[in-house]
Amino acid sequence: MSSEFTYAVETFEAVWPEMKPLWDLHWQEVALDHGNVKLDPDIQGYLALENLGMLHVVCMRKQGRLVGYHISFVKPHLHYASTLHSFADVFFVKPEFRVGFAGIRM
After folding, report:
1. How far apart are CA 7 and CA 30, in angstroms?
2. Which of the 8 DSSP states describes residue 82?
3. pLDDT of residue 1
4. 5, 22, 42, 106: which sits with the fewest CB atoms below 10 Å from its CB?
Protein backbone atom coordinates (compact mmCIF):
# COMPACT_ATOMS: atom_id res chain seq x y z
CA MET A 1 0.00 0.00 0.00
CA SER A 2 2.93 2.36 0.62
CA SER A 3 3.58 2.53 -3.13
CA GLU A 4 0.48 4.71 -3.29
CA PHE A 5 2.41 7.44 -1.50
CA THR A 6 5.08 9.81 -2.70
CA TYR A 7 7.64 11.45 -0.44
CA ALA A 8 9.58 14.62 -1.15
CA VAL A 9 11.51 17.39 0.53
CA GLU A 10 9.54 20.58 0.09
CA THR A 11 9.87 24.12 1.36
CA PHE A 12 7.89 25.20 4.38
CA GLU A 13 6.93 28.40 2.62
CA ALA A 14 5.37 26.53 -0.30
CA VAL A 15 3.61 23.82 1.68
CA TRP A 16 2.39 25.75 4.74
CA PRO A 17 -1.03 26.74 3.29
CA GLU A 18 -1.71 23.08 2.53
CA MET A 19 -0.16 21.89 5.81
CA LYS A 20 -2.11 24.16 8.16
CA PRO A 21 -5.32 22.06 8.24
CA LEU A 22 -3.22 19.00 9.10
CA TRP A 23 -1.57 20.90 11.96
CA ASP A 24 -5.04 21.59 13.33
CA LEU A 25 -5.86 17.84 13.20
CA HIS A 26 -2.48 17.02 14.74
CA TRP A 27 -3.04 19.50 17.58
CA GLN A 28 -6.51 18.10 18.27
CA GLU A 29 -5.07 14.59 18.49
CA VAL A 30 -1.97 15.11 20.63
CA ALA A 31 -2.16 18.41 22.51
CA LEU A 32 -3.39 18.68 26.06
CA ASP A 33 -5.37 21.46 27.69
CA HIS A 34 -6.94 22.75 24.47
CA GLY A 35 -8.95 25.31 26.42
CA ASN A 36 -5.88 27.07 27.77
CA VAL A 37 -3.13 26.41 25.22
CA LYS A 38 -4.12 27.32 21.69
CA LEU A 39 -2.32 26.27 18.56
CA ASP A 40 -0.29 29.33 17.61
CA PRO A 41 2.71 28.39 15.44
CA ASP A 42 5.42 30.97 14.86
CA ILE A 43 5.27 30.93 11.05
CA GLN A 44 7.75 33.78 10.72
CA GLY A 45 10.15 31.81 12.93
CA TYR A 46 9.83 28.75 10.68
CA LEU A 47 10.40 30.90 7.60
CA ALA A 48 13.45 32.52 9.20
CA LEU A 49 14.93 29.09 9.97
CA GLU A 50 14.19 27.99 6.42
CA ASN A 51 15.98 31.07 5.05
CA LEU A 52 19.00 30.13 7.19
CA GLY A 53 19.01 26.61 5.76
CA MET A 54 18.08 25.16 9.15
CA LEU A 55 14.64 23.71 8.38
CA HIS A 56 13.99 20.35 6.71
CA VAL A 57 10.46 19.45 5.60
CA VAL A 58 9.48 16.07 4.19
CA CYS A 59 5.97 15.68 2.78
CA MET A 60 3.96 12.53 2.26
CA ARG A 61 1.37 12.71 -0.48
CA LYS A 62 -1.29 10.47 -1.95
CA GLN A 63 -2.35 11.36 -5.48
CA GLY A 64 -0.76 14.77 -4.99
CA ARG A 65 -2.66 15.55 -1.78
CA LEU A 66 -0.69 16.21 1.42
CA VAL A 67 -1.43 13.46 3.96
CA GLY A 68 1.63 13.68 6.22
CA TYR A 69 4.71 15.68 7.11
CA HIS A 70 7.91 15.61 9.10
CA ILE A 71 9.71 18.80 10.09
CA SER A 72 13.11 18.94 11.70
CA PHE A 73 15.67 21.57 12.57
CA VAL A 74 19.19 21.08 11.22
CA LYS A 75 22.03 22.70 13.11
CA PRO A 76 25.26 21.91 14.93
CA HIS A 77 24.67 20.02 18.15
CA LEU A 78 25.57 21.88 21.33
CA HIS A 79 27.72 18.90 22.35
CA TYR A 80 29.24 18.34 18.90
CA ALA A 81 29.62 21.77 17.33
CA SER A 82 31.56 20.57 14.28
CA THR A 83 28.77 18.32 12.97
CA LEU A 84 25.23 18.95 11.83
CA HIS A 85 22.37 17.14 13.54
CA SER A 86 18.67 16.89 12.86
CA PHE A 87 16.25 17.64 15.69
CA ALA A 88 12.69 16.44 15.10
CA ASP A 89 10.09 19.14 15.56
CA VAL A 90 6.78 17.63 14.43
CA PHE A 91 5.60 14.68 12.40
CA PHE A 92 2.10 13.63 11.50
CA VAL A 93 0.24 11.28 9.19
CA LYS A 94 -3.52 11.54 8.85
CA PRO A 95 -5.01 8.55 10.71
CA GLU A 96 -6.58 6.96 7.64
CA PHE A 97 -3.13 6.76 6.00
CA ARG A 98 -1.32 5.13 8.92
CA VAL A 99 -0.83 1.81 7.19
CA GLY A 100 2.13 -0.52 7.03
CA PHE A 101 5.40 1.38 6.78
CA ALA A 102 3.89 4.42 5.04
CA GLY A 103 4.78 6.87 7.84
CA ILE A 104 8.14 5.26 8.60
CA ARG A 105 9.23 5.76 4.99
CA MET A 106 8.90 9.48 5.53
Report:
1. 23
2. T
3. 45
4. 42
